[in-house]
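Sharing a chain and its predicted structure for anyone who wants a worked example. Both blocks are below, sequence first, tokens second.
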Amino acid sequence: MTGRGVILAAPGSGSGKTTLTLGLLRAFHRRGLAVRGAKSGPDYIDPRFHEAACARPCPNLDAWAMPRDRIAALAAGEGLLLIEGAMGLFDGAPPEGKGATADLARLLGLPVVLVVDAAHMAQSVAALVAGFARHDESVQVAGVILNKVGSPRHEAMLRRALAPLGLPVLGALHRQPGLEHPSRHLGLVQAHERADLDAWLDHVAGAVAAAVDLDALAALAAPLPPAPRPPRLPAPGRRIALASDRAFAFAYPHILDDWRADGAQIIPFSPLADEAPDEAADFIFLPGGYPELHASTLAEAARFKAAMRAARCPIWGECGGYMVLGNSLTDADGARHEMLGLLDLETSFAARRLHLGYRKLHAIDGPFPGTWAAHEFHYATTLRAEGTPLFEAVDAEGRALAPAGLVAGQVAGSFLHLIDRPD
């Protein structure tokens, strides 16, 4: 049976899409409905909350970096798919907004429910919603959910203003305590760091179920397109040791799934627990995460460090994992911590500077040859990087960037997260 889907988008960031999506996923799940989530764009954190809310895997659907067949294959499945948008509905990479949530709506043929932060508006909400509904005829805005509503009187004003547009108002979630979730510099605090996560999700689900017409929202969902078979990314080894804990949590599931489908075994280990990678591993992957928050623990992880330095197989590090491959990592307080010393690299979190954007890469060397679509998002600065560069890089507008990453023998890495082979 073909699944159905709907996209939850907003006029801009901070509208409450994530909280609302999590509440809907948990509310439908508690009803016994087969429901699952997906996240637009290169986000590692929100999908893990989706999975906790509905006990189903949550893929990233990236309309900038992924081929059309990859997106359709990841979206396919039975039951109801709720796709959480990123930023504003039409916001994407420069110069023309490629990769926006609107691109997913067009590609998958799904309707959009607009989540509006109504905290500081009344009748003007109609102009805002009308503008989004009429902006692009190829994107169907099929309904509205009002968020951060101040009172019953406020809700009545908003509904009255929207009535002439003919778009269904599916619900109005009022401001109330306990719905917010703490954040840090790369987004929400990670799902596995919250001991009361299930209780919080139940609380959010209760509030959302009381405020939103779940049946009406589900009825808007449209059929998902058939699932094609996209090209599979080949595994870089047969036994892949994957660093996995609070410091190393940012690995794309679709890449790991491709590796498994190619016959690889993924063997997790925890550097924070001073675990060594599997002795029989023929590839070691240190993904991104928050090593800057755990730099002193990593610096003292003698068993982990000795095993990594003695490894005879290829080692790959992305973003935070790349920082740990270097000589040192300076934390936010200015304290310098010794890392693995496998690359001639020194990074610092003391003077933060945002590096953000899509990248197109061509490998100069390393274990992942060819051309890649990738994303960069970090605040660390590079104090020193000496050696052979790993990638030639251009940004989303095609402008040449400085060569990225380093490679030294069997060790390679960069601040860039590989996503997929471009079309």
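Comments welcome. The chain has a mean pLDDT of 95.
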